[in-house]
Specification:
Layout: H1 16-32, H2 49-53, E1 68-70, E2 74-77, E3 80-88, E4 91-93, E5 96-103, E6 108-110, E7 113-120, E8 123-125, E9 128-135, E10 140-142, E11 145-152, E12 157-159, E13 162-164, E14 191-194
Parallel strand pairs: 1-3, 2-4, 3-5, 4-6, 5-7, 6-8, 7-9, 8-10, 9-11, 10-12, 11-13
Antiparallel strand pairs: 2-14
């Protein structure tokens, strides 16, 4: 049985179901532009040749808000930062700054790490500054951790000093000079190598 807009038992009485249905349909019409007055069928639709041949507006590319990814077969030397999340499967010889950082099993960072949240499955040789730090089973961290909260799973290795801080990023110390790295707040050109899988 089809839907009839103004008949049937649901449309009688208080009308809560029908009011919801009409409200949703009205919002749908407004969102799709069907709420605008349409010419009736007796009015011919006239297009000029210019209208028919005009190119369509180019589609805007979708903005990808997902994490940046450093693949397993990539080795990078130099400091860098990402305004979004960063997933490290390869190796970084330099300092890393990201909104959220995940170092996966097999991934490594030799340098200081600054992020809101750091999750380590791989290895870090350097200081870690983050509001939330999680060392997962299999993680190896050799260096100090300045954190808001710290979780250390069984099976992980941590060699260093942990210090709780309300604002870990404010305690970042200048790093020792790294090859092709930057310690003065300016970005260095990273050296990226790609290793083909064996």
């Amino acid at each position: 049985m089809g839907y009839s807009g103004n008949s049937g038992a649901q449309d009688r009485g208080s009308g809560q179901c029908s009011d919801e249905r009409k409200g949703s349909f009205g919002r749908l019409k407004a969102a799709t532009g069907f709420a605008k007055s349409q010419p009736d069928a007796s009015t011919p639709l006239v297009l000029s040749a210019q209208d028919a041949l005009a190119p369509a507006a180019p589609a805007q590319p979708a903005i990808h808000e997902g994490p940046s990814v450093l693949s397993a077969n990539v080795e990078m030397t130099g400091s860098f930062s990402s305004p979004n999340a960063l997933h490290v499967y390869g190796s970084v010889d330099g300092n890393v700054r990201a909104a959220d950082l995940t170092i996966f099993a097999g991934g490594s960072v030799k340098g200081d790490v600054v992020a809101d949240s750091v999750q380590v499955h791989g290895s870090v040789e350097g200081r870690v500054y983050a509001k939330k730090v999680q060392l997962c089973s299999g993680a190896v961290v050799r260096g100090d951790i300045v954190h808001g909260s710290l979780g250390i799973d069984t099976g992980s290795t941590f060699e260093g000093v942990s210090k709780r801080s309300e604002n870990p990023a404010a305690e970042v110390k200048p790093a020792a000079s790294k090859r092709n790295g930057s310690t003065n707040g300016t970005a260095a050109t990273p050296d990226v190598r790609y290793s083909s899988p064996s």
